[in-house]
């Protein structure tokens, strides 16, 4: 099955709405139609910039796709400071990050919480990008695959095979996020393959073949081509490099490198 690569830029807590508009304008200047044909390109700004970027994409008829960094699992209620899935869907958000390692580590998100968010995102008609990955200690102890399999099982409880088929899983080794360290292309490919195998065992072969598995963790212009050449890697979840229009454009043009 041919899977369209998904290149997503997670801007984290950076850029106000004016800076966000400027970054998108600079990014699209560097991209050509063939780049959008080769990959689905997603920008994931902070909540405060979502409406501005949505309007820019629509008014300028850009081929970029909009994503959000997080959401609550309830559709509404007394949850001060939270954003619901229907609110995001109304802004034509297509993808929502669920279980990013920073959410797990800094805000105490468990697999159960991530599971609630995954199911809520699906119910709102959007696609979760489910993030999984091990710490350096877990990898050095030889537990990396066990940890990732456990995260997949807990985060996908109650999700159907057909829903999984259309999802995205981002494998992000925690030790490589924002550190400048990157898993070797072989290690990244092996773990993305292990993710696919685990999904095939838990769901169906069709689900495993349909799901797109990204690699994330210090993806840069200098390493993206080698990573994207790996058969099990279907895209990249990019952090710091997505804040530089030229760097992110190079990553989006991986098929030309």
Write structural notes for this entry.
With 257 residues, the protein is α/β, with parallel strands linked by helices. It has one domain: TIM Barrel (Alpha-Beta Barrel), CATH 3.20.20. Helices cover 46% and strands 14% of the residues. The protein contains 13 helices and 8 strands. An 8-stranded parallel beta barrel has the order 1-2-3-4-5-6-7-8, surrounded by 5 helices. α12 links the parallel β7 and β8. α8 crosses α10. The longest helix has 18 residues. The protein starts with 5 loop residues before the first strand and ends in a 5-residue tail after the last helix. The mean pLDDT is 96.
Q: What is the distance, rounded to the nearest whole angstrom, between the alpha carbons of the first and last residues? A: 24 Å
* Poorly predicted spans: none
Instruction: Note the main sheet.
Output: 8 strands, parallel, barrel
Number of domains: 1
């Amino acid at each position: 099955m041919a899977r369209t690569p998904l290149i997503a830029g997670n801007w984290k807590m950076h850029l106000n709405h004016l800076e966000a508009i400027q970054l998108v304008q600079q990014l699209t200047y560097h991209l050509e139609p063939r780049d959008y044909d080769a990959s689905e390109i997603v920008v994931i700004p902070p909540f405060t910039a979502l409406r501005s970027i949505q309007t820019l994409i629509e008014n300028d008829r850009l081929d970029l796709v909009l994503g959000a960094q997080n959401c609550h699992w309830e559709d509404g209620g007394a949850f001060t400071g939270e954003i619901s899935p229907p609110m995001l869907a109304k802004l034509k958000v297509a993808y929502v990050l669920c279980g990013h390692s920073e959410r797990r580590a800094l805000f105490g998100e468990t697999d159960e919480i991530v599971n609630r968010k995954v199911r809520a995102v699906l119910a709102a008609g959007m696609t979760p990008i489910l993030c999984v990955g091990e710490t350096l200690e877990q990898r050095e102890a030889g537990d990396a695959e066990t940890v990732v399999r456990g995260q997949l099982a807990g985060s996908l409880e109650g999700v159907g095979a057909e829903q999984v088929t259309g999802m995205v899983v981002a494998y992000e080794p925690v030790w490589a996020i924002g550190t400048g360290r990157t898993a070797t292309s072989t290690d990244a490919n092996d773990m993305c393959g292990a993710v696919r195998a685990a999904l095939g065992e838990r769901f169906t072969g069709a689900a495993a073949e349909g799901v797109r598995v990204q690699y994330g963790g210090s993806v840069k212009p200098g390493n993206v081509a080698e990573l994207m050449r790996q058969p099990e890697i279907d895209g990249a979840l990019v952090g710091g490099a997505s804040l530089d229009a030229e760097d992110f454009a190079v990553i989006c043009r991986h098929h030309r490198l």
